[in-house]
Amino acid sequence: MLDAAQTTDVQAETLLEVNNIEVIYNHVILVLKGVSLTVPKGGITALLGGNGAGKTTTLKAVSNLLHSERGEVTKGSIRYRGESIHASDPADLVEKGVIQVMEGRHCFEHLTVEENLLTGAYTRKDGNAAIQQDLDLVYNYFPRLKERRRSQAGYTSGGEQQMVAMGRALMSRPETILLDEPSMGLAPQLVEEIFGIVKDLNEKEGVSFLLAEQNTNVALRFAHYGYILESGRVVMDGPAAELRENPDVKEFYLGMSDEGRKSFRDVRSYRRRKRWL
Amino acid sequence: MPEQLVFAMEVTLNGLMAGVLYALVALGFVLIYKASGIFNYAQGVMALFAAMTLVGIMNGQVPFAHLINAIFGTHVHEFGWSVPGFVAILLTLAVMVLLAWAVQRFVMRHLVGQEPIILFMATIGLAFFLEGVADLMWGSEIKTLDVGLPQGINLWIDETTFQIFDYGFFIDNLDIVATLIAALLVIALVAFSQYTKQGRAMRAVADDHQAALSVGISLNFIWVMVWSVAGFVALVAGIMWGTKSGVQFSLSLIALKALPVLMLGGFTSIPGAIVGGLIIGVGEKLFEFALGPALGGATENWFAYVLALIFLVFRPQGLFGEKIIERV
Ligand SMILES: Nc1ncnc2c1ncn2[C@@H]1O[C@H](COP(=O)(O)OP(=O)(O)OP(=O)(O)O)[C@@H](O)[C@H]1O
Ligand SMILES: [Mg+2]
Question: What's the CATH code, domain B3-314?
Answer without folding.
Answer: 1.10.3470
